Amino acid sequence: LQSTLDTALASPGKSQDGTRIQIHLNAGLSADSSIAINQGVDGVGLFRTEVPFLMQRRFPSEDEQVKQYRAILASYPDKPVVMRTLDIGGDKPLPYLSVDEDNPFLGWRGIRFTLDHPDIFLIQVRAMLRASLGLDNLKLLLPMISGVNELLEAKTLIARAFEEVRQEAQLAGEVLAKPLLGIMVEVPSVLYQLDGIAQEVDFLSVGTNDLTQYLLAVDRNNARVANIFDALHPSVLHALSLIATTSDRHQLPVSVCGELAGDPVGAALLVGLGYRQLSMNTRNVAKIKYLLSRLSLPRLQKQTEQMLSLSEPGQVRTQMEGFLAEQG
Ligand code: PEP
Ligand code: MG
């Protein structure tokens, strides 16, 4: 089994009939930069920058951040690295910033917090841009966007940071490349504004953890309701289908970086729905690549179509598991 997985890890992600599926890594504290995993993935699909912020007793300085981001970008010099701006709040409060809220998941988190603190946002974006100098593999990702206005506000700040760093770099004889910009699709209101958002971004990344939480109104960390937190819920699957078809219509690259992408049933469904980029934790990479290499796309698409008409998440899982077992 280990050698089968090693072989899967070493080859590019593909379905049985040869359709390329890009496989990216989710990373936090640091990206796994071992040679095997580095060569086995197409890049970093989600670097969660709140992790380094949580490790400190105060906000890290711009220079400290440059060092941390540079280390990640340099581990993947010839591959894209998607860095998400700070997504604290919700289940990730900062120990050195006390915020008292009744509903933190519906409160001051992600882009809401950073737009209210442009100083923190600008320092972080400047640090990311400085870290990318000469590597040019940075992609910027904004968390918790709920509408076009927030996106435009963030873009104004990013443009300012870009201009500052570009000029500083120019004085040093360096050229700053413009990073591609994307948003997390994880707040359900975005589902109905995808056409407008598509005009303003270079890519989308679907966060199935929060999308499930907000679509089903179920706390992703509450054990009492864990049985109804299910990304295979038909409403989530329909939302995922809508995002895939809308992105396709706009020829906008879209990836999935929620936990669903690293789950065999989830990954198969996502590919069946049309996704061609999945981002997951290191430990799932070999398994998912192996699974995809056994799947025929036309058959998978037919199966996925049928799953969209079921009404129970449990049925989706059972029937998908049956289908996957049949495909070997
Ligand atoms: C998500 O919400 O699916 C996601 C990938 O982001 P996080 O888990 O960090 O909220
Ligand atoms: Mg999220």
UniProtKB/TrEMBL annotation:
<protein>
    <recommendedName>
        <fullName>phosphoenolpyruvate--protein phosphotransferase</fullName>
    </recommendedName>
</protein>
<comment type="similarity">
    <text>Belongs to the PEP-utilizing enzyme family.</text>
</comment>
